[in-house]
């Protein structure tokens, strides 16, 4: 049986799941939380509700509907996607293999307001270890973050670079970083250098010499995952065609991660389109 993995359990992802499951495609939905929608106290501009509904309730209803139709729902954080003989989805607890992927987990990349960070993008500042690790072979690098996503990026860098230091900017790191990764929890003042990034300046006046820094704060957004497999992105948005297909065959995207109107109705429509197009792709 052909399989699809949908990353994101909000309106776009669940809408896609409704169409793939009803078409007889084995459907797995992986989501960490409800994203921005779960913070909406009252929703009054979505079709079909005579009374306001909370974002949390709307998410719960959608997940229950997808389960009833046969979708498998996993609560987990996706940290990477890739390709071997099939498409691979890596979470914090397991690896999945699939024939198609629909990215629908929003655009949650976080960029801290640290002096020098934006100035050195492409000159030592990167958002993708899979994409750029090769350029730092035998060099000292840092990963800015503290959690599972940062750990995944650091582990990508370890076999290639001379050293990897986790810089948390004052946050407490999760406990499962290996001893081969140095950890610096000091607050960061600035990144500095000449033509390329050269060092991190901390609040206590100390510095850390580096050749590159990889930003991995919070959880990976859809665009972060898309870049790991080579799909085209434009800033923080995934580039898709009129069929919600990315530039990588078998990978589709829907919802906030494609830009445009950031509304539930748009996400539901794009999820439905991505789901039907994924079914067509898998049946070819």
Describe the structure.
With about 280 residues, the protein is an alpha/beta fold. It has 2 domains: about 170 residues, FAD/NAD(P)-binding domain; about 100 residues, FAD/NAD(P)-binding domain (3-Layer(bba) Sandwich). It is about 25% helix and about 25% strand. The strands form 5 sheets. It has a 5-stranded parallel sheet with strand order 3-2-1-7-18, sandwiched between helices. A hairpin with a 2-residue loop joins strand 16 and strand 17. It is globular, with a radius of gyration of 20 Å. It starts with a strand and ends with a helix. The model has no long low-confidence stretch (mean pLDDT about 90).
> What is the strand tally?
18
Parts with pLDDT < 50 across at least 5 consecutive residues: none
- Name the CATH superfamily classification of the largest domain: FAD/NAD(P)-binding domain
Q: What order do the SSEs take from the amino end to the carboxyl end, as H and E?
A: EHEHEEEEEEHEHEEEEEEHEEEH
* Major beta sheet, strand line-up: 3-2-1-7-18
Helix coverage percent of residues? Answer: 10-25%
Please identify, by name, the CATH architecture of the largest domain: 3-Layer(bba) Sandwich
- Mean pLDDT, all residues: 91
Total domain units? 2
Q: The CATH topology of the largest domain, please? A: FAD/NAD(P)-binding domain
Strand-residue proportion: 25-35%
Number of helices: 6
* CATH class term of the largest domain: Alpha Beta
Inertia-based shape:
globular
Structural class per helix/strand content? alpha/beta
Q: From the alpha-carbon coordinates, what is the Rg to the nearest angstrom?
A: 20 Å
Distance from N terminus to C terminus (CA atoms, Å) equals: 13 Å
Largest sheet: 5 strands, parallel
């Amino acid at each position: 049986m052909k399989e699809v993995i949908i990353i994101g359990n909000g309106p776009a992802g669940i809408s896609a799941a409704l169409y793939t499951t009803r078409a007889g495609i084995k459907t797995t939905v992986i989501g960490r939380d409800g994203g921005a929608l779960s913070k909406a106290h009252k929703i009054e501009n979505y079709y079909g509700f005579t009374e306001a509904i909370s974002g949390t309730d709307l998410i719960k209803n959608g997940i229950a509907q997808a389960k009833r139709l046969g979708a498998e729902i996993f609560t987990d954080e996706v940290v990477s996607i890739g390709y071997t003989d099939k498409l691979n989805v890596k979470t914090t607890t397991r690896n999945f293999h699939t024939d198609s992927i629909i990215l629908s987990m929003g655009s949650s990349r976080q960029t801290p307001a640290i002096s020098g960070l934006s100035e050195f993008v492409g000159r030592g500042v990167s958002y993708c270890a899979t994409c750029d690790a090769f350029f730092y072979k035998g060099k000292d690098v840092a990963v800015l973050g503290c959690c599972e996503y940062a750990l995944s990026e650091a582990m990508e860098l370890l076999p290639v670079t001379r050293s990897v230091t986790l810089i948390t900017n004052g946050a407490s790191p999760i406990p499962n970083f290996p001893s081969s990764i140095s950890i610096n929890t000091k607050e960061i003042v600035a990144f500095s250098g000449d033509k390329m990034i050269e060092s991190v300046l901390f609040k206590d006046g100390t510095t850390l010499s580096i050749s590159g820094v990889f930003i991995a704060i919070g959880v990976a957004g859809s665009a972060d995952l898309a870049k790991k497999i080579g799909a085209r992105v434009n800033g923080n948005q995934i580039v898709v065609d009129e069929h919600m297909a990315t530039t990588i065959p078998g990978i589709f995207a829907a919802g906030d991660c494609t830009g445009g109107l950031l509304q539930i109705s748009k996400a539901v429509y794009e999820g439905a389109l991505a789901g039907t197009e994924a079914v067509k792709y898998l049946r070819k």
